[in-house]
Amino acid sequence: MACLPIEAQDAVEVLLKKSPVRQLEEHVTSLSNYLWSRKRPPEDRDLREKAIELEKKFTENKHFQSDINIYQKEQKLKNDVLNSLRKNIYHWQPLSYTAQIGLVYLAARFDGGFAAVSRVLHEIYQRVPGFSPQTLMDFGSGIGSVLWAAHGIWGNNLKEYMCIDSSASMNTLSELILRGGSEQGEMHISGVHFRQFLPVSPKVQFDLVVSAYSLNELPNFAERERIIQTLWRKTGGFLVLIENGTREGHQLLMEARDIVLKGGDKEVWDHRPAFVFAPCPHQLECPKLAESSQIPCNFVQRYQPLKFSWKPSVRWEKFSYIIFSRGPVGESDRHWPRVVGPVLCRPRHVHCNTCCSDGKLHHHVITAKKHGKDLYRCARICEWGDRLPAITSNLGPDKTVCDEKECS
User: DSSP states of 169-197 as a string?
Assistant: First the structure.
């Protein structure tokens, strides 16, 4: 179970005690719901296509076959199309993180964001023990969840943290947390630098580049493409992208996946190719996108939330993520299937939904008799998001219905 370092928890308590924000619980709930349901801004091309579709629909309506003059008809058509667009198109607005909103965000998202980032970074730490990053760049760093999580894993091996956030208030708040909630306090983590603008020069790379819950704050696809290409350009080892575990968050990551894997960046200095390190055990298109239901590829992490009277003792963070590596890494086990849903343990058998190296989703019923005791034990203790130490062919054919006698 993930838990914020005690130093971070103490700093949050100090900051919120002297906070001017009233009715904090209501503000936290409102902001959390808004961020979870947030969608990408509509593209101008999509708006034009929708407008043409509506115009055709209204023109064919008998309502427009009346004898009013042409000018009045055009004006009415224009007004009806605009009103329909306003009602049916998502109205995206940029978020402005003032000092007060930053404190609400701190109470709402610090613990859950830290939990997700810790879980994702542990994937690298466990699978590539020889990777010991010295430099980290965090785009959209906000209140510093990434640097706290990275420091908790690699400790003093990390010498430099470049934290980039366009909000000066968030940068100030992040530094206050590092100082224990006081401007005069000592920095708990050294080597941290704050910037409001993303450096675009490809000459300086970072061992680890992370962007957590930030892609949806960019105003259009062109800007997302530019930022993602810049982040990959700055990546020396791994690029980590994390978003909400919603359909929207998953689609943002799949968009980023295409941008990185297909290339197209004219300013290439590092010619090592991009590989999907996790969560996919393959380099093919995400099979979740091919499903008619379009259920997102997401994962969960249990964590201990900040100590507020309205929060339970344990919560779960649902998130989607993707990790890119410079060149293939962890070749010996990179084809292990990934568990992409809750694991159901039943008497003498285990149900696992997996994404496998063939680029397809599978449902397996694992038993000690058919698959061996070792794999059976692994399946019983594995969790949503873990990998099964097996090759797809060794798991046998899919089985979607368990034997009634075994289930009884």
Answer: HHHHHHHHHHTTT-TTSPPSSSSEEEESS
The C-alpha atoms of residue 365 and residue 351 are separated, in whole angstroms, by 5
For residues 243 and 318, the answer to whether their CB atoms sit within 8 Å is no
Are 158 and 133 within 8 A, CB to CB? Answer: yes
Q: CATH: 3.40.50.300, 3.40.920.10, 3.40.50.1360, 3.40.50.150. Which one for 2-37+94-326?
A: 3.40.50.150
Is the distance from CB of 144 to CB of 188 less than 8 angstroms? no
pTM: 0.89
Paired with 210 in beta bridges are 138, 240
Q: Which two tokens stand for residue 335?
A: 């084809």
- What is the amino acid identity at position 334? R
Domain range list for the chain: 2-37+94-326, 44-88, 338-407
Q: Are strands 299-304 and 349-355 parallel, antiparallel or unpaired?
A: unpaired
Going by DSSP bridges, is the β-strand pair 235-244/206-212 parallel, antiparallel, or unpaired?
parallel
| Average pLDDT per block of 10 residues along the chain, 408 residues long | 95 91 92 93 78 73 57 71 74 88 96 98 94 97 97 96 96 96 93 93 91 95 94 96 96 95 80 93 89 83 93 94 91 86 92 92 91 90 91 59 33
What pLDDT does residue 305 have?
Answer: 95
